[in-house]
Each structure stands twice: as C-alpha cells, then as structure tokens.
C-alpha cells in the first residue's frame, strides 16, 4: 500500500532507471507526459527501449518505481513516464494519469489468467476521464499462447471505453531477432506522437 497523499504535487518525484541511456530530459513540462501503465511483466520497459533505440534492450528486473524516457521523432519530442506495475506501485497510477496527455496500456497477450485483472485496472483508470486517448499494446504476440488482438479487444472490453475517446489497439512483440523496428511499432510511435501533440494543443 502506498504511503502517499492523493495530491500528485506531494507524490514522490519520478526517478529514472539507473544508468539508462533513455533518461535524458525532454524540453517540455513534466505534466505533459505520456503515461505508460500495465501489470508487472507485461513488457512496458522493453517496448519503451525498443521505441527509443530501435533495438531490443530487455530489462533484467521489473521497474521499481518510475522510469522517465524521452523519445524524439522528426517532428515531435515525447516524454514517457512508466510506473511500475507490481502491486505496491499501482496506487500511484491515477494520481499521475490525471496530468497525462494520453494513456499507453500494455498487456501480456499470453497471460490469460491476468487479463481480467488488467481489464479491471484499465477500466478504473479511464473511467475518471471519458476523453483521455488510449493506446493499448497487446504485447508478446510471438508467444504460442498469445491471444489474437481481436480476443484481447474482447477480454479487455475495449468496446466499452467510450464513444468520445480515441482508442487504438496494436499487437506487438519485442524479440531478440528484431534487427530493426517493425513497421507496426513505427506506426504506433507516430500515432502516439500525433495524439500527444493534438492533446497538448487542446489543453
């Protein structure tokens, strides 16, 4: 259980992973971050490394706290804030999401037993903001047990997230055999950049 106030201004300052090459600061306000959430083991950190470096750099342990990552594209600079997905850190999710530009939610497509848990947290998060853009990564599509993205759409009840919300679902995998960023990951990165820019302009 988190020992913290519900006031985001009094919550612990996000701390990047030690020795991470991704944690250079972005030239933008801290409250303009893209929030990356999901249960522990879903692959959040691996996806962020892949988007930033165009290569696999697997994390050796679950994120303990916060991981701030700056990703630059040709036209945009984005700061992502990943918050650990294990039980002690989930109480921080809502307080940081309230100031986020959009939500990136990552699920393990092959972990069937935890999909209901992922659904519960996802709907709790987006229920407080009916228009917050949502990008879901159905990760680990390379595993034999992985559900197809249509099954993930149903398991997470994404049809219930709201008619006014921009919502996108991508099937992803981050494997050692990837020599370059797959086109779907490039498309996802470009889409996130555009959503963040549009949301920031409307703020």
TrEMBL record:
Pfam entry (one): Arf
Residues holding Mg(2+): 45, 63
Alphabetical UniProt keywords: GTP-binding, Magnesium, Metal-binding, Nucleotide-binding
CDD domains cross-referenced by the UniProt entry: Arl9_Arfrp2_like
Gene Ontology MF annotations: GTP binding; GTPase activity; metal ion binding
InterPro entries: Arf-like_GTPase, P-loop_NTPase, Small_GTPase_ARF/SAR
Domain of life per record: Eukaryota
Residue segments, region Disordered: 1-23
Record has Magnesium as a keyword: yes
Binding positions (GTP): 38-45, 85, 139-142
Membrane-spanning segments: none
Protein's name in the database: ADP-ribosylation factor-like protein 9 isoform X4
Source organism of the structure: Odocoileus virginianus (White-tailed deer)
Taxonomic lineage of the native organism: Eukaryota, Metazoa, Chordata, Craniata, Vertebrata
């Amino acid at each position: 259980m988190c020992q913290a106030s519900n006031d985001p201004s009094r919550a612990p300052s996000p701390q990047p992973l030690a020795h991470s090459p991704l944690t250079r600061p972005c030239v933008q306000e801290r409250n303009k971050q893209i929030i990356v959430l999901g249960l522990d083991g879903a692959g959040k950190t691996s996806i962020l490394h892949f988007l930033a470096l165009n290569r696999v750099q697997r994390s050796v342990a679950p994120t303990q706290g916060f991981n701030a990552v700056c990703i630059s594209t040709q036209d945009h600079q984005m700061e992502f804030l990943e918050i650990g997905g294990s039980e002690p850190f989930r109480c921080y999710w809502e307080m940081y999401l309230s100031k986020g530009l959009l939500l990136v939610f990552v699920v393990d497509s092959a972990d069937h037993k935890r999909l209901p848990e992922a659904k519960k947290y996802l709907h709790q998060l987006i229920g407080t903001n009916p228009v917050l853009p949502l990008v879901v990564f159905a990760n680990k599509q390379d595993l034999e047990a992985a559900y197809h993205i249509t099954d993930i759409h149903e398991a997470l009840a994404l049809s219930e997230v709201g008619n006014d919300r921009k919502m996108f679902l991508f099937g992803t995998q981050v494997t050692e055999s990837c020599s370059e960023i797959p086109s779907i990951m490039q498309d996802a990165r470009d889409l996130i950049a555009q959503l963040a820019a549009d949301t920031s302009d409307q703020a």
